[in-house]
């Protein structure tokens, strides 16, 4: 009888010990290596402006006298989002809410409107649509972009970009992403209300686009994944990509750029083993392409400090 009592007591002690061990054991750490990121509580990007980080960025940009002058003249805007710690994001910008003509960069707005329409059954998916979306993003094909605009209509594109869920064009914050003209010589204009631009952007809103995309918050997690797949491995190798392919050959690049006359724009989500960030630039200058290439080295320095 005594042996049975001792044995039972030992079992109880073992059970309590096991329960305590299981309770104290740390849960497995989430995997933040794959996009889109699985994070429930995604803070608004505007709330993540880091003054120290921004001071470093502005100081490095202003070392170049021409860049400093362009920033002062509001002919150059830059946005940078540090994503190395997905739960402690840092954001910095120069002329963040200054809207400029953005050439082909706003085609990312067409992509979002298309995925929103496909999700809601307003657009019937097809091989032709998928091909046009890829051509529009990877090669910035104007004919494919125009076909997508015609399928969607300006009202649909505007409704998505101004939807409070996305808030990618907001008059209270200087405007933002806008597509108001076919990428063709013909067709009516549907300009944005603040400056009358047909293809517009601010670096803040483009940074927000990539930020929400990285966290799976554009349309849905699955649609965000589809959009990332559309944007990865750009087939135009100039501006940011020209430099990033040298300094970060192992990183995935999700990218859209634009060029028209003296307007040079670029945007990229860099995702690799050693660097994870969003970089956006809008520049009105004939040397804008070179400025974008040179800017990568400056940003890499900022992120290393």
Number of domains: 1
CATH level-3 fold name: Beta-lactamase
Q: Strand content of the residues, in percent? A: 15-25%
First-residue to last-residue Cα separation? 71 Å
Give, in order, the helices and strands. Answer: HHHEEEHHHHEEEEHHHEEEH
**Adjacency order of strands in the biggest sheet:** 2-1-10-9-8
CATH architecture: 3-Layer(aba) Sandwich
Query: In percent, how helical is the residue content?
Result: 40-55%
Question: Total strand count, please?
Answer: 10
From the helix content, strand content and strand pairing, which structural class follows? alpha+beta
Unreliable residue stretches: 1-24
- So what's the CATH class? Alpha Beta
Q: What's the story with the biggest beta sheet?
A: 5 strands, antiparallel
Radius of gyration: 23 Å
Q: Compute the number of helices.
A: 11
* Overall outline: globular
| CATH homologous superfamily caption | DD-peptidase/beta-lactamase superfamily
